[in-house]
Automatic annotation (TrEMBL):
It is found in: Cytoplasm. The lineage of its organism: Eukaryota, Metazoa, Chordata, Craniata, Vertebrata. The keyword Membrane does not apply. Its main location: cytoplasm. This is Potassium voltage-gated channel subfamily A member regulatory beta subunit 1. Coiled coil: none annotated. It holds the Pfam family Aldo_ket_red. GO terms for biological process: potassium ion transport; regulation of potassium ion transmembrane transport; transmembrane transport. It comes from Strix occidentalis caurina (northern spotted owl). GO terms for cellular component: cytoplasm; juxtaparanode region of axon; voltage-gated potassium channel complex. One of its GO terms (molecular function) is oxidoreductase activity. PANTHER family: HYPERKINETIC, ISOFORM M, VOLTAGE-GATED POTASSIUM CHANNEL SUBUNIT BETA-1. SUPFAM superfamilies: NAD(P)-linked oxidoreductase.
């Protein structure tokens, strides 16, 4: 109750226009929405959730119901899975990469794990699709996130201006993300989560 009351105050004072949640469950978001409506407060409008080719469950199964029932959109983050989808880890962990840093040991372990190696194989299998669409693998991954109707925005974590410019190129790829291309990607990934109703385009 305090969060909803505080956010309503912040918005009413003109310090913010909207508020959203981060890493809340669908049940928590629905509860916040219901309580806000019941007590004439302002409900959250978005959920910040991790979403990329290898992390799909929450955005594709849990959030669509909220999107369609109460209009809560997803503000997604980590479209390149902390750089795993960038393509730079296809042959191990380069010394100049983030995963080589001591504080990112967890990322290195994730990349060199059996699951990480399987992910790199899948990324190599996706490369011909990116080539056909005239884009890079990171651009394909960001466009894939953007094509989901419940995704309001994708937060990019670029390390330098060149990466930002490359990632922004995903906007040019988005119109090419046909249902045929999405199905092709799904077949390669083999991780499309089960849902009662498919809300994606």
């Amino acid at each position: 109750m305090e969060i909803k009351d505080s956010m309503t105050h912040v918005i009413n004072q003109g310090m913010a226009m909207y508020w959203g949640t981060s890493r809340w469950s669908a049940m928590e978001i629905m509860e916040a929405y219901s309580v806000a409506r019941q007590f004439n407060m302002i409900p959250p409008v978005c959920e910040q959730a991790e979403y990329h080719l290898f992390q799909r469950e929450k955005v594709e199964v849990q959030l669509p119901e909220l999107y369609h029932k109460i209009g809560v959109g997803a503000m997604t983050w980590s479209p390149l899975a902390c750089g795993i989808i960038s393509g730079k880890y296809g042959n191990g962990v380069p010394e100049s990469s983030r995963a080589a840093l001591k504080c990112y040991q967890w990322l290195k372990e994730k990349i060199i794990s059996e699951e990480g190696r399987k992910q790199q194989v899948k990324l190599k299998d996706l490369s011909p699709i990116a080539e056909r669409l005239g884009c890079t693998l990171p651009q394909l991954a960001v466009a894939w996130c953007l094509r989901n109707e419940g995704v309001s925005s994708v937060l990019l974590g670029s390390s330098n201006p060149e990466q930002l410019i490359e990632n922004l190129g995903a906007i040019q790829v988005l119109p090419k993300m046909t249902s045929h291309i999405v199905n092709e990607i799904d077949n390669i990934l083999g991780n499309k989560p089960y849902s009662k109703k498919d809300y994606r385009s």
